[in-house]
Amino acid sequence: MNLSRRSYLGLSAAMLSGCVARGGESAGTPEATATSEPPVPTPRFRYDDPSVDAGGDPLAVAFNSRERFRDVGWLVDDFEDERLWGTFAGRYAVEEEVVYSGSQSLRLEAAPDDERVWIYRTFEDGIDLSEADLSLAVNLETPDTEGITVRLAAPDYDNTLLLGRHIWKAGWQRLDLGPQRVTGSPDLTNVTEISIQLYTGGGTTARFYVDSLRAKPRAGAGSVMITFDDNTRSQYDTAYPILESHGFPGVVGVIPWTVGSSHRIPRSGMDEMVESGWDMVSHPQQSDSFRVLSPADQRASIRESKAWLVENGFERGADFIIWPYGRYNESALDAASDYHYLGFVTVGGPTGAISDPQIVGRTDGDDVQKAKKALDFAAQYNQLAVLMYHDVTGKGRSVSPAAFAETMDYVDELGLDVVTASSYWDSIRNSI
Known about the structure:
alpha/beta
């Protein structure tokens, strides 16, 4: 993208850095390690009318990737015949008002005395999913955040593959379901039952809608993306040399208004890393998550963060976003879709072919065993495993340099292809 250099927005107010939940939201997973770093500026939004459509904006992407990829693959169940489904727990009903496609969806509900809501469909002759990944359209109403799991009995309960994804309340989303647990030796050429569940543990209500269960061709090989949030100094001083020794590139989520702080990657270091094949992508972190910001401020923050990357020579990574605090809502997804092709959240695990590019899941790399498990699944089922790091110091909850090197050695051992956001996008953008 060729744009004239424009002076960046002024800086004011103050925020504390790091991906730690604020604004009254509770953190669902371990985030960045707290530091004694002084407060850094937060942007003062500058825009004419952030509520207008991004059409004609030179920073906007060429097309909406969510719309482009939403129906990749082939239909497994359209939920138009509810009689095909039974219940293990909770209850379901036909829903004609909240629909992803077709004339109806299924509304799944769990009462406070239910531990979960759980529905299933059997396939008498079995279906072959050995070369396919699944995606499911889900609209979560309550609770505000939860994990959806899909179990494949292949061919029975002693031989199952459990798939799953974390979800935030944000309207209809297509969840790309990745492997979480294997029982026995599932034969995916003979899947005799598919079940869908949300576990609450009881004491609360749950209500969500499901529609359009689809299968898509599995990738030819597994891959891994190594991402870093917050452009912290240890990513350059420690992680970069370790990855260079393996010939691996990485992806840095840059908080533009922190660049120049002594605790961040030096500006010259960012250029050096990009020359080595790294991506500098958007990470428009504020003191509140995007679930707290107004739609106007969401859009302004997304746009100005991308503008900084473009104006400073990081166009290659500017089309991609790492969600601050891993959180989003419907208006945030809409705004991001105007300016970015891919978005990365905090949790989700390995995933196959992408159907909702704005909510690509990641695995916490600070937990070495969890990271290795994700890498194993990526190798076994030809998935994309996206590892997430903040500091690489061994202080607090951050991974130690030795443990980080151990994980990178394991990537090498498995022979996984190491991709960046831009190289991965280049490989899939014309796949449909």
